[in-house]
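Retro notes, item 3 of 5
We never archived the inputs for the oxa(dethia)-CoA complex last cycle. Fixing that now. Sequence and ligand:
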Amino acid sequence: MSEPTGSTPARSPAPLRLARPPVQDLGVRVLGSGSAVPSRVVTNAQIATICDTNDEWIHQRTGIRERRICDPAKGEGNVQLCTDALRRAIENAAITPDQLDLIICGTITQDMRCPSTACVVAGALGAGHAAAWDLGAACCGFVYPMNIAHDLIRIGTYRTIGVIGADCISAITDYSNRSVGILFGDAAGAAILGATDDRTKGVLAQVNKADGSGWHDLYVPAWESQIAPGSDRTNHRLGCLFMNGREVFKFAVGTFQELIAETLTKGGVTVADVDMFVCHQSNARIIEAAVERFGIPPGKVYVNIDRYGNTSGGSVPLAFDELRKAGRIQEGMVVMFVAFGAGLTWSSSLWQM
Ligand code: UT7
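Structure as it came back at the time:
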């Protein structure tokens, strides 16, 4: 018997037979909504006792008359608002908490750094083993996760998702800083999104963008070295929100209008096709400028900033919930959600309800 003269040729591996689950194309419906605001009402006159401002200036420049502010002594905070909003959305959707596959909470004002607000809310409501995470997109805190949740349901990853948008900006506000103290309030809103075989329902177009080069126009420095180079340090307080109001205003007016135009084009619709615009309540003048440019009939744009101020991630879902409860948003309607804020971020979601 002769010795082998060379090495045995390697056998090619058997072809892998693992099948990845097929990507689905499901419709997505809003099954329910809910919202929560603190019980304490703070008027412009009360703000004027803390910083150099007055009711007339605030109302003329922002549209705000009053806002709701959490009272920590009563246990009010971000988690409480989020829990109440999601509980109400679950009840409105006529489901049970353990039917949720995922909870996403869009917030930048977590009561605790760890764990996520979404996990604490899931525990409080008995949401079983639903996945849960927070998403930090400031005033886009509802629209960013709404788009993500929609797409996860559409491709079949999850069937039922609770999306929360919430902020307790009072926890990071220095009320002696008048550009911030007059503007913001606390609120949370939530929606339950669910899969449907009706593929006409869901997002028709979405835009999710950011420009991180503008982060220093709206931010919360935690320590001295984070204060943006070249800025006036006396305007900053560690742990508190700093806003370059004029710059953010310019960004907001321009971006808001481009965002609406881009979303209309992507969705292949006109203003006349949209039944309701649910806009981030940042400043009534910013909304008015968009209404004027696009000739949007007043009945198609909701404004509640007079009662709540700018509630950051809570503003869009709070407006959405009020509109649904008032019967002004119904199944079958075309609805555009639009938001922009710190980051800088901007985001839209055009829905066939
Ligand atoms: O949601 C996240 C995104 N955030 C926003 O979209 C907010 C965008 N920015 C704004 O809404 C506005 O910039 C503010 C409401 C914050 C400020 O309004 P403004 O019209 O941009 O005021 P300004 O800073 O240009 O100041 C105009 C005048 C100044 O007086 P002079 O220099 O003209 O004499 C300010 O000193 O108003 C004065 N001023 C105030 N007076 C009374 C500024 N703030 C106040 C105040 N009360 N709170």
